[in-house]
Amino acid sequence: MSVAIGRAVGRVLAAGDGLLHPLPLVAIALLLLNDQVLKRAAPGFVTGKLSDVAGLLFFPVFLVAVVEVSLSAIGRWRGPSRNLLLGAVVATGATFAIVKVLPVGESAYEIALGLGQWPFRAIAALAGGSSVPALAPVDLTRDPTDLIALAALAIPFAIGARRVAGEAADPIAPARGYDLVVGGLSVALLAGATMDGWAHSHELLALESVITPWHLVVYAAFAAVVVTLLGPPVTAWLGAGDRNARNVAAAAIPDGYGLSVAGVFVFAAMGVGDTLWHLIFGIESSAEALLSPTHLGLGLGAALIASGPIRRAWIRDQHATWPRFLPAVLSVIAIAGVVAFALHVSNLFVDPWPRYLYALTDPTWYGPYIGVASALVPAAIVMVPTILLIDRWGRLPFGTVTLVFGGALAGLTFLHDSSVLVGAPVLGGFVADVLLVLIRPGASRARLQLFGFLAAAGLFASYFVVLWATGTVAWSAPLIGGTIVLAGGVGWVAAIVPGSHRRPREQG
Predict the structure, then answer these.
(1) Confidence at residue 322, expressed as pLDDT on a 0 to 100 scale
(2) CB under 8 Å to 288, separation ≥6 — which residues?
(3) Which of 323, 375, 437, 460 could form a disulfide with 175 if both were Cys (CB 3.0 to 4.6 A apart)?
(4) Please, are residues 195 and 187 in contact by the beta-carbon 8 Å criterion?
């Protein structure tokens, strides 16, 4: 059975034809290649996560196809459904999270996969003249760090949404090249700063010089930023050759990028100042490095540089859609990430205070107080930009919040050796993206406030689930529950303050 869809290009869709898209085909090929070749040739972090990403790219498309073909067989399929697509993505993500976090999920998956593999093992054994093997579960290593792969679910959702709308489901539709370069380099600056922060608490002997591998990452990214941002105005100025050169150069700066150009000069000045600071006062370590005035100035310059893509999207874009919206999201990740890095002394994703025992009768009594504050700070850092994006665009493409939460917070888990929590902010972002679709916070201020509370609470509910799955938790139920509620309160307040004078717009 087929259904004519004429909303966009007059294509005719058939039940289950989503599986014919290049995405699931490439995902399956990648999964087989990684499991059979790459993992054996180069075992490690990347190959360990690659199969998870490939599986998450394929499985929602597969689920949608199975349901569509089943409905078509009984004559009840009427075309692609957004609700079915959302259900497939949520079911895939929820199942993946349960398997990776909860022991019961791990056991159930081992048994289910063992049952699924048994027919093929039996056929192979019989073909080889052996007896039929017994049913046996597979051996799975439960790893909550795999949760970072949940961000990949934004891709099948985006492609499926295009199919629902009757549009050409092109996963590589062009994004803005200039904005994408600046956004990507801004994230690279953040990554370099995070690596340098790790070194300041782990490789003190290697920091006796300002020329370090970690600084070189920052220098390389900044050099590329200088060429990208200053290239057009400098070229225009040199080519003008008259008294209007200054105006010609200014006109060559793209809309929204004025602060980014200013950020280049701020970053460069702070870089020179940081070198002089090190020569006079030496190389800082730990909190000293974080609070060094020149380092804070570098952070300000980096945030200004990163502001260009989101400022231009704010001015020009009426709708937020993938992949066009990606540069703006990278911009937000870089800015929120810089703020989170500067305030990482108060961040549960950096220092897991709920793991530490505490008692009223000794100096450890202050642990829970610092811990609660360390939940409220990152909640505010990620919820404020998320609320602003919703307030501006109404509807965000699925996966936006997963990228913002994960991009701003996941890297910080490596600073003080808490990398087992790297998947927690990604899981929290995935929960928030699901809430975004269900609540539609762009429809009213009340819905926006409800989303703000539940999204921030969901972030730290995810945090405590992953924390429990990866080690001991010393905090009591009242402390854990209260922290989740207070974090939700931060999200609720964030939804009240920005744009409270007007009702947000729901845009599709």
Answers:
(1) 80
(2) none
(3) 323
(4) no
Residue type, 224: A
Specify the residue for token string 């801004």. 186
Does residue 6 carry a pLDDT above 50? no
Query: What is the C-alpha to C-alpha distance for residues 207 and 243, in angstroms, rounded to an integer?
Result: 47
Residues 6+ apart with CB under 8 A from 360: none
The pLDDT tens digits for 54-63 are: 888 888 988 8
Q: Are 317 and 282 in contact (CB under 8 A)?
A: no
142/152 Cα distance (integer angstroms): 19
Q: What is the b/e burial string over 301-317, where b = at least 16 CB atoms within 10 angstroms of the residue's CB?
A: bbbbbbbbbbbbbbeee
Cα angle value 220/226/227 (rounded, 5°): 95
Q: Which pLDDT belongs to residue 349?
A: 95
Among 308, 506, 495, CA closest to 396 = 506
What count of other Cβ atoms lies within 10 Å of the Cβ of residue 401? 30
pLDDT level of residue 281 (50, 70, 90 thresholds): low
Q: Are 490 and 348 in contact (CB under 8 A)?
A: no
* Residue 271 one-letter amino acid: G
Q: What is the helix (H) or strand (E) element at residue 111, kind and residue range? A: helix 103-127
Q: Are 427 and 466 in contact (CB under 8 A)?
A: yes
Whether the bond into 323 is cis, omega within 30 of 0 = yes
Assigned token pair, 423: 């998947």
Measured CA to CA, the distance from residue 234 to residue 261 in angstroms comes to 11
Give the contacts of 311 (CB within 8 A, at least 6 positions apart).
Answer: 255, 256, 257, 259, 260, 331
Backbone angles phi, psi at 130, to 5 degrees: -100, 170
Please tell me the distance from the alpha carbon of residue 195 to that of residue 189, in angstroms, as a whole number: 10
Residue 163: how many CB atoms within 10 A of its CB? Answer: 22
Sheet strands (E) in 108-262: none
3-state class of 14 per DSSP? Answer: strand
Q: Quick one: average pLDDT of 479-507?
A: 77
| Cα distances (angstroms) measured from residue 449 to each of 141, 292, 442, 490 | 39, 37, 10, 10
Could you give the CA distance from residue 346 to residue 343 in angstroms, rounded to a whole number? Answer: 6
User: Closest Cα partner for 368 from 382, 381, 351, 343?
Assistant: 351
pLDDT at 279: 66
* Residue 173 CA: distances (Å) to CA of 47, 142, 309, 321: 27, 36, 18, 11
Q: What is the pLDDT of residues 324-382, one digit of tens each?
A: 899 999 999 999 999 999 998 899 999 999 998 887 766 667 788 899 999 999 999 99
